[in-house]
Amino acid sequence: MTKEKFRALGRNAARCAACIALAAALSLPMLPRTEAAAAPSGDGVLVAYFSLSGSVPEGADAVTHATPSIGSTEAAAREIAARTGGTLFAIRTERTYPERHDECSEIAEQEMRDDARPALASHVEGMENYGTVFVGYPIWWYAEPMAVRTFLEEYDFSGKTVVPFCTSLGAGVGRSVENIRELCPDSTVLCGVTLRTGSADFREPVEEWLKELGIIQ
Ligand SMILES: Cc1cc2nc3c(=O)[nH]c(=O)nc-3n(C[C@H](O)[C@H](O)[C@H](O)COP(=O)(O)O)c2cc1C
Q1: Does the CA dihedral 165-170-175-179 come out positive or negative?
Q2: Is 170 exposed, middle or buried (0-12, 13-18, 19+ CB in 10 A)?
Q3: Which of 50, 197, 201, when mutated, tests ligand 1's pocket best, judged by the most ligand atoms within 8 Å of its CB?
Q4: Ligand 1 center–CA 204 separation, angstroms
Q5: pLDDT tens digit string along 151-208?
Q6: DSSP string for residues in 3-24
Q7: Which domain holds residue 130?
Q8: Distance (Å, rounded) from C-alpha 209 to C-alpha 206?
């Protein structure tokens, strides 16, 4: 491991420890707002997620590797919503993505290169009612799909707590969390979790993670 990577890991670990301490000190849904809070936020919990299965042509099943009939990220989101009492919200794009992995991969890469903001077909009503927003997505090319950026730029997240989670075949959530912190500079962005696609179910890892964050007992 290079010195730079080692230092970066140390920085991330320190950040995560701080996140956990912060979240543990707070208890949902009574998270206090930061000094930077601009828009008032309610105490609600929103569990927003993007999943390829929600954005393929009608009638087609997403055939990403090992993706079950509902998307992996949707399965994880449902588990989080069940545990936190949060409201589920599917981030859907106006455009569809090809169900074939290699074709979808090509488009996803091009969107990243273009710093694209795919238009969204679904919109949250009453975002001001939510003080805590879980944001879930599959890892595409080691980061969050660009539609997640469209979502994060559509609303005012200042003063809210943003909790990222991802599903992937192996790539970690780290880079996407850094990106989300840049997009939401006035929010408290907790360290995210990486859930491995193909896990029998997400019950155990989700429970463990929410407990670590102090969000559930
Ligand atoms: C376009 C595309 C790019 C992907 N890139 C990665 C990647 O870089 N690293 C990785 O571990 N998995 C990658 N995957 C796999 C997905 O992250 C994984 O299958 C995810 O759980 C799918 O979630 P979903 O069913 O909710 O869409 C990619 C999948 C697609 C479709």
Answers
A1: negative
A2: exposed
A3: 197
A4: 21
A5: 999 999 999 999 999 999 999 999 999 999 999 999 999 989 999 998 778 999 999 9
A6: HHHHHHHHHHHHHHHHHHHHHH
A7: 3-31+41-212
A8: 5
Domain holding 46: CATH number?
3.40.50.360
Q: Give the binding-site residues of ligand 1, using a 6 Å CB cut-off.
A: 51-53, 62, 64-65, 67, 71-74, 101, 104-105, 108, 138-142, 167-171, 197
Tokens of residue 87, six digits: 């409201």
Whether 168 is covered by a domain: the verdict is: yes
Q: Is residue 36 part of a domain?
A: no
Helix (H, G, I), strand (E, B) or coil at 83: helix
107 phi/psi in degrees, rounded to 5: -65, -45
Average pLDDT, the chain: 84
Q: What pTM, to 2 d.p., does this model score?
A: 0.85
Report the distance separating Cα 160 and Cα 23, nearest Å: 13
Q: What ligand 1 atom has the least distance to the C-alpha of 49?
A: 26
- The answer to whether the CB of 68 falls within 8 A of the CB of 58 is no
Asked if residue 217 belongs to a domain, the reply is: no
Question: How many domains is the chain partitioned into structurally?
Answer: 1
Percent of the chain scoring above 70 in pLDDT: 76
